[in-house]
């Protein structure tokens, strides 16, 4: 099946290189040179994935991302050149699925596109209402329903992102086993290679804020200093 990728990038030569390389990889490509056009195409052309530059004329990448998320769950990879932008992508719940820093190799970009397309393809639709059963991992006051992608604490459903859920589920299904951050990236994010493990730390931090009574003294997701993280059952 041919997948369509929308490239929103204002620098014409970068936009050209991206669309050219992606079409060589077998994708259909669409391109927009500013945020307003990009947003319009995102909403009307139904791309399978969006590459979104942060600094754009018209609407910037942040605004475009937020607006797309009001009505679509299409995977979005932000393209960024700056450290402070990365912190912002990680720290805010804009709804971006991933980011890639400039300069990047086309090989890295292609791998990231592939991983995000694969992830979005395997996300199952929310199933019909189902009684709680063995598909729920119960630990303390936490209940993780792996079928319904739902986490509740003391019976109250928690607002959790897909990535946070996947990380929690992965750890909770193998309690007390310590995973390195690289291992978590590989298994939860689906990257074959990827240097930046801060993504894991930030996701753990956000998850703790949601599930722990005291995020500074976590009971569920425990840091094993110098090694990684584990779920404490
Ligand atoms: Ca730009």
Descriptive notes:
With 233 residues, the protein is an alpha/beta fold. It is built from 8 helices and 11 strands. It has helices spanning 12-24, 35-44, 61-69, 83-91, 106-122, 162-172, 181-189, 198-211; strands at 4-8, 28-32, 49-53, 76-80, 98-101, 136-139, 142-145, 150-153, 156-157, 221-224, 228-231. The strands form 3 sheets. Strands 2-1-3-4-5 form a 5-stranded parallel beta sheet, with helices on both faces. It has a 4-stranded antiparallel beta sheet with strand order 6-7-8-9, covered by helices on one side. Strands 10-11 form a two-stranded antiparallel ribbon. Helix 2 (35-44) packs parallel to helix 3 (61-69) and helix 6 crosses helix 7 (181-189). Mean pLDDT is 85; it is low at 124-132. The structure holds calcium ion (CA). Calcium ion binds at residues 10-11, 53, 55-56.
């Amino acid at each position: 099946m041919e997948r369509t990728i929308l490239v929103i990038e204002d620098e014409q030569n970068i936009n050209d290189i991206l669309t050219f390389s992606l079409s060589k990889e077998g994708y259909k490509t669409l391109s927009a040179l500013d945020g307003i056009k990009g947003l319009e195409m995102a909403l009307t052309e139904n791309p399978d994935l969006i590459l979104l530059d942060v600094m754009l004329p018209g609407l910037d990448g942040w605004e475009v991302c937020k607006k797309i998320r009001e009505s679509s769950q299409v995977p979005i990879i932000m393209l960024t050149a700056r450290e402070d932008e990365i912190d912002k992508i990680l720290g805010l719940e804009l709804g971006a699925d991933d980011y890639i820093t400039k300069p990047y190799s086309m090989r890295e970009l292609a791998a990231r596109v592939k991983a995000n397309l694969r992830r979005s393809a395997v996300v199952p639709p929310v199933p019909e209402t189902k009684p709680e059963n063995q598909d729920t991992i119960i630990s303390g006051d936490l209940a993780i329903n792996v079928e319904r992608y739902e986490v509740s604490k003391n019976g109250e459903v928690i607002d959790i992102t897909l990535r946070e859920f996947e990380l929690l589920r992965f750890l909770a299904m193998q309690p007390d086993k310590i995973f390195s951050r690289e291992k978590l990236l590989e298994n939860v994010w689906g990257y074959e290679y990827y240097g930046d493990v801060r993504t894991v730390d930030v996701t753990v931090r956000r998850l703790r804020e949601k599930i722990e009574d005291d995020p500074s003294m976590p009971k569920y997701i425990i840091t094993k200093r110098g090694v990684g993280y584990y779920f404490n059952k």
